[in-house]
Input
Amino acid sequence: MNYDRILIRYGEISTKGRNRNKFVEKLRKSVKIALAPFPNIKIEAGRDRMYVLLNGEDGIEIIEKLQHIFGIQSFSPAIKVERDVEALKHSALELVKSLYKEGQTFKVTPRRSDKTFVLNTDGINRTIGGFLLGNIPGLRVDVRNPDINLQIEVRSEAIYLSCENILGPGGLPVGSSGKAMLMLSGGIDSPVAGFMAMKRGLEIEAIHFFSPPYTSERAKAKVVDLTKKLAEIYGSSIKLHIVPFTNVQQAIRNQIPENYSMTTTRRMMLLIADEIRNKEGALAIITGESIGQVASQTLESMFTINEVTNTPILRPLIMMDKTDIIKIAHEIDTLEISNRPYEDCCTIFVPASPKTKPRREKVQRYESYFDFNPLIDEAVQEVETLIIQPVEQKSEFDSLF
Ligand code: ATP
Ligand code: MG
Output
């Protein structure tokens, strides 16, 4: 039996009240981009579900794509049948027959969102269940744990049959929650933080601090590759801002007592990131920090570093263990890139024993002896902005909209 469409359930977006149309539109756009390689499909987006009409395209490949689109709760390959009992019987039989293997069990799960159909749920159960039992020798009913669960959904325009529910990733459609800047280091954590932010519907732009000649082109290439991976997940290009940070770091090394240099480095990074955020019209900064992981991520450090801005800092990994973060990095395919050896601008300048409990008053005093502002302005002005395309992306995708 060939399914003719895929029925997509929204899950969480359907709780978004009046914003729903906007969410549905964003999801439709994500689906359209992901399914661009299948020119014959048609997307029908409704208030509470979406249909992808296959029109002869490969359902298996499309299913693979849909499994990665944020905002999709679950989906089912389905068949549309006219609202007629005989047509329903016929299609149900054909579908179950095509899936049935010797000795398997089934059940019928009817749902009526439209109550005007001639059969009620009980009637559908008995009529279709009985018809299938009478026409497929060996088929048995098991309402608890059936091999085949025939879902029959009666709606006002038609009836839909499906036997499989495939889970989507959940979350919210990309871009539906606004834009935030991701501080992307090249380590394991920050790409995972970016992934989690995108899953909640955030559009991201990445910022990377780069300190040539102390950090090499390889370190930069790594961040470009990580951004590329994120762009692939995102389904569209991502801006990557590369900040020349050498002069600021050298000034810190010359001006700030060694055990506070890491604290000031982080404060300067945050200040610069915030300036870029402001220029780009984003409303938050995302980091890969996780509490207690390293000296800069103690509560005292965060309290002291965060002092430089009141922009919301989103820390998706804040309460996560490293092993769980690594698991996600592996799943989203960033781990291997993150594990490439490289020199981080922070590790190179990192003091032997950074303060784990830096104090605001102290760092303020140390920083007050030197005017960092011209260096900060210079770094912001000399940012190099790259538009990173996902690997598979072709420019003609843009013309679809
Ligand atoms: P990651 O694995 O993301 O590098 P980490 O465990 O190494 O994190 P830190 O090096 O303390 O932790 O960095 C904490 C966060 O600060 C990072 O997750 C990232 O968001 C940001 N960050 C660190 N270094 C850079 C950098 N060179 N450019 C941009 N952001 C950075
Ligand atoms: Mg790091």
Summary: The first helix runs from residue 20 to 34. Residues 5-167 form a domain with the VC0802-like fold (CATH 3.30.2130.30).
